Amino acid sequence: MTITGDCFCGAVTYKIEGRLFDARSCHCSRCRKAFGSQASAYARVNASQFSWLTGEDLLTSYIGTSGAGKQFCSVCGSTLCGLYDGSVHGVTLGCVNGEPDIMLEMHIFTGSKASWETIAEGIPQYEEWPPKNRLE
Ligand SMILES: [Zn+2]
Ligand SMILES: [Zn+2]
Q: Per residue in 78-100, is it b (16+ CB within 10 Å) or e — as a string?
């Protein structure tokens, strides 16, 4: 299957020739800042299946001290993907188009969620990392 995504202004577009996996929402304070939201909504991709279609020259990267980072559109500010060791690690679910055949599997770092958020029930919630962390 082919999944596509784009940013708010539409200048940056990508495709994934494969499936998303490990979809999760992280409620920690760092993800709140990175996503400008109550939590992240993020899924892993196989880097070899990911490619930019348009606007790659408009991307700006932010790499944190851990080596993990993100790439966002320099025109509209949408965060499109997460980076790890210089390659695409996953995508922000908010920028994925259509119905990508994946559901959030867990909420993590609920112990540090914002005071103003009520987390939707129905999937596992973990105070911090899940018992078996599969981030990397
Ligand atoms: Zn944009
Ligand atoms: Zn987080």
A: bbbbbbbeeebbbbbbbbbeeeb
Ligand nearest to the CA of 35: 2
pTM of the model: 0.92
Q: Three-state SS for 7?
A: coil
Please determine, for residue 133, whether its predicted confidence score (pLDDT) is greater than 90: no
Measured torsion, CA atoms of residues 88, 19, 49, 40, in degrees rounded to the nearest 10: -10
Ligand 1 centroid, distance to 66 Cα (angstroms) = 26
| Cα distances (angstroms) measured from residue 134 to each of 92, 97, 131 | 17, 25, 9
Which 3 state secondary structure label does DSSP give 49?
helix
Which of the ligands is closest to the CA of residue 27? 2
CA of 85 to the centre of ligand 2 (A): 18
Q: What is the pLDDT of residues 14-34, one digit of tens each?
A: 999 999 999 999 999 999 999
- Pull the structure tokens for residue 110: 């609920």
Please tell me the distance from the alpha carbon of residue 119 to that of residue 71, in angstroms, as a whole number: 27
The ligand whose atoms approach the alpha carbon of 73 most closely is 1
